[in-house]
Each structure stands twice: as C-alpha cells, then as structure tokens.
Amino acid sequence: MNTLALILQAPAGQPGGMANYSGIIMIVLLFVVFYFFMIRPQSKRQKEIKNFRAAMKVGDKVITSGGIYGRIKEISDDTILLEVDENVRIRVDKNSVFATVADTQQK
C-alpha cells in the first residue's frame, strides 16, 4: 500500500522543455503522412474522373459502374443515353460511367 502511494505522489516530469512539443510534432507528422499517402492521391483521382466525364462525347464506348457496356447516343446535364444493343437504349446517371472501353483494354 505504501509503495502505491509513493508511485502516485511521484513527480510527473518537469513542465516545459521538449516534452511539450514532441506530442505536437508527432501529430503534425501524422497529418503530413496522411496527406501524402491518402488525401492527395484520392483528390488527384477525383480530378481525373471529373475531367473524363467532362470530355465524354457522343459515340464513345463506355462502361457503367454496374458493368453495362454501351455506346453514348445522347448526353444531357445529369444523364447519358446508352445504346447497349440494336434498338436497346437505357438512360443512366452520368456519375455511374467510369471508364471507356479503350481504357480497359490498355490495362
């Protein structure tokens, strides 16, 4: 019991000095690592997807997120009309198109 009381009454360390800054430095370093390995690559990828969707034009062969292959017949602000077979057309959300057929064949 006396040992426990001595441990609890022991000084916690000297105030000031480098000990106060080490925690802040570790948090800053952690943020830098997260930025360069997670946040920055994801924002670059989102920018590429946005540019791809802005560059789509009628006649492009594309793939939707559901795996439907088709050719773009019409583009409006939010939707795309895809022709998936002769006289079979579907309207899909523009955000569901993620790749061209040529992109998938290059990989």
Characterize the structure shown.
The protein is α+β, with helices and mostly antiparallel strands and 107 residues long. It has 3 helices and 5 strands, in the order ααβββββα. The protein has helices spanning 2-9, 19-55, 101-106, and strands at residues 61-64, 69-75, 79-85, 88-93, 97-100. It has a 5-stranded antiparallel β-sheet. A hairpin with a 4-residue loop joins β1 (61-64) and β2. The longest helix has 37 residues, at 19-55. The mean pLDDT is 83.
How is the topology of this model organized?
Elements: H1 2-9, H2 19-55, E1 61-64, E2 69-75, E3 79-85, E4 88-93, E5 97-100, H3 101-106
Antiparallel strand pairs: 1-2, 1-5, 2-3, 3-4
Give me the side-by-side strand order of the main sheet: 4-3-2-1-5
Class by alpha and beta content = alpha+beta
| Rough outline | elongated
- Tally the helices: 3
User: Overall pLDDT, averaged?
Assistant: 83
Strand-and-helix sequence, N→C? HHEEEEEH
Main sheet record:
5 strands, antiparallel
What is the CA-based Rg, rounded? 28 Å
Strand content is: 25-35%
> Helicity range of the residues?
40-55%
Count of β-strands? 5
Taking the alpha carbons of the first and last residues, their distance comes to 69 Å
Contiguous runs where pLDDT drops below 50 for at least 5 residues: none
